[in-house]
Amino acid sequence: MLRGAAVNNTERRPALHSLLRAGSGGGERYAAVAATRGRMRDLAESIRAGAHTGHTGRAITDVVNIGIGGSDLGPRLVSEALAAPDTAPRAHYAANVDPDDLAAILAPLDPATTLFVICSKSFRTEETLANALTARAWLGAGGVADGDLARHCLAVTTNLEAAAAFGIPAHHCLPLWDWVGGRYSVWSAVGLSCAIALGWDRFAALLAGAEAMDAHFASAPPADNLPMLLALLETWNCRFLGAGNHVVLPYSHRLRRLPDFLQQLTMESNGKAVTRDGAPLAGQSAPVLWGSAGTIGQHSFHQLLHQGTRRCPADIILPLAPEDPADRENHARLIANGLAQSRALVIGRSETQAREALLARGEAPAEADRLAPHLAMPGNRPHSLITFPRLTPEALGALLALYEHRTYCSAVLWDINAFDQWGVELGKEIGRQVFAVMQGDDDGAALDTGTLSLVALWKAANG
Ligand SMILES: O=P(O)(O)OC[C@H]1O[C@H](O)[C@H](O)[C@@H](O)[C@@H]1O
């Protein structure tokens, strides 16, 4: 993979996301990466300095990234983790085609100081194009003349023709390449909204952290190689112990989107039923990944982690020091909670210990006997603790690259192609068909009666 072999064998492409964060290199691909990085840096700096302005000459205060899947989850996570929420320019993320998503973002914004980044590797994704049209209409209604639209819109895509047809001129388009998978693309111009909100130096530090993890992955012996160890743990937990899921618990509000990001990375990469050669898989593929920020889950689903009948292997992620030293005490509470969960998961509490605790708090022996099985916790619940001193851009870059490489190592162990996603296509195709029927452009002959009766309900509800 790191050397550029066509590891994506169904699409006959390499998967060279590591090149996107490389600090040096040769060849045409690296030259294109370096040139695009230079354009990103210039754009981000001129927007932050107020040199690239909106049509009235006022500085850009808000950047709205319109994209979905890999064109949304990575940059959203990075911005929320690293950008100062109250300092302009602020980054916002609209993904859902549900009009309420974009409307809520746009309500407080001023078209004169808003810049859209239309982010779509294919520039064919329905949700993104529909939201981009809404954004364009909002700019128009807000006084931005057609000739000035380009000052308020940038595009990131492999499909420069489609972006041009949408009205975004080539000098406002940043390229992406087919050898980068959407879910591995935050390091590319897909991260433009982050570079604007964080500033170039912090975005470059994110890349440097990922590059350091690439170097570790490429050179560390297997027994010390973090991506390999995580993949072996995933294999052990899912294939040998039969856990069908994996829970991710970042003890960090700033990392609350990490489970969303890892869902796409893990489940879209390795949620497959056939080997690279198309034969049925011999064992399970990707676990169902879920999670939420600690300590929120402790007051919700951790009951099941400790005493449920399902095995839920967990990653507990602990940035050990807060961003602001003034937050030390409550941050220490947060970390104490994470460590406590780890201990409770491992050690648990035997029925005898539970009975003793009940007696100590004054329960009668018969009542202690009755309650002890309810208080007992089996322990021996598998989990990993991932710690780093602070949530710096470097640490986040390394963490995301760690999971990227873990995902690839699991795919190698399970003989899966981690870089295609054919399973998402059929739903899109049917979606287009159903929409045409709803619009009266298709008689629905190719659809089933169940779907048609639901379309009839939709028609009735919409008058
Ligand atoms: O970036 P785009 O081409 O708009 O694609 C956005 C997303 O849509 C697809 O359905 C894929 O499942 C994702 O892997 C991709 O990230």
What does this structure look like?
This protein has a five-stranded parallel sheet with strand order 2-1-3-4-5, sandwiched between helices. Strands 7-6-8-9 form a four-stranded parallel sheet, with helices on both faces. It is an alpha/beta fold. Helix 7 packs across helix 8 (200-219), helix 10 (258-270) packs parallel to helix 15 (393-414) and helix 13 (351-360) crosses helix 14 (365-375). It folds into three domains: 17-204, Glucose-6-phosphate isomerase like protein, domain 1 (Rossmann fold); 220-414, Glucose-6-phosphate isomerase like protein, domain 1 (Rossmann fold), CATH 3.40.50; 422-461. The relative contact order is 0.12. It has helices spanning 17-20, 27-48, 73-82, 99-106, 126-141, 160-166, 192-198, 200-219, 226-240, 258-270, 302-307, 328-347, 351-360, 365-375, 393-414, 425-438, 449-461, and strands spanning 62-66, 90-94, 114-119, 153-157, 173-175, 245-250, 288-291, 314-319, 383-388. Bound molecules: 6-O-phosphono-alpha-D-glucopyranose. 6-O-phosphono-alpha-D-glucopyranose (G6P) binds next to loops.
In brief:
The chain has 463 residues and is an alpha/beta fold. It has helices at residues 17-20, 27-48, 73-82, 99-106, 126-141, 160-166, 192-198, 200-219, 226-240, 258-270, 302-307, 328-347, 351-360, 365-375, 393-414, 425-438, 449-461; strands spanning 62-66, 90-94, 114-119, 153-157, 173-175, 245-250, 288-291, 314-319, 383-388. The protein has three domains: 17-204, Rossmann fold; 220-414, Glucose-6-phosphate isomerase like protein, domain 1 (Rossmann fold); 422-461.
